[in-house]
Amino acid sequence: MTPVGELRASIPLALGTYGMNIFETYIISVLGNLVPVIAILWILEPISKFLMNRSSLANRFFTWLFKHTRRKYSKRFERYESFALIGFVGIPLPVTGGWTGALIAFVFGIPPKKALLHIFAGVLIAGLIVTIICKTVGHIKFIIAG
């Protein structure tokens, strides 16, 4: 599972190249997408605090990142917090996915348990969209070629 591909790559690969069962593909892809998300959600804060305490450069960077991002986007994000995170993760485009959703949750200070629920919902939606597209495009190719 790569940060760019996530389930947007694993589902088409499993269905098209390996001919795996659709349900097996979906479950494995969703779970595989969530494993790194869980690690990211619970590891980023301790790592950032450790670095901020040990390095003035890291302290300046994280302080700037949190202040800048929260100042610029907090009003919009706070209004739609759960829907924003679910929607961001649920749209299967490059740079939108579980990994990036976990980074966003970290920057906005969303507690890991709450963030995981929203990211999980978004990953389920993205998985459904990618699976439907893969199966639909496969049938369209078959009809055109056949």
Automatic annotation (TrEMBL):
Alphabetized InterPro entries for the sequence: Sm_multidrug_ex
Pfam families documented for this protein: Sm_multidrug_ex
Record-annotated membrane-spanning stretches: 26-44, 80-109, 115-134
Record flagged with keyword Chaperone: no
Keywords (A to Z) from UniProt: Membrane, Transmembrane, Transmembrane helix
PANTHER family to which the protein is assigned, alphabetical: TRANSPORT PROTEIN-RELATED (PTHR36007:SF2)
Protein name: Ligand-binding protein SH3
Species whose genome carries this gene: marine sediment metagenome
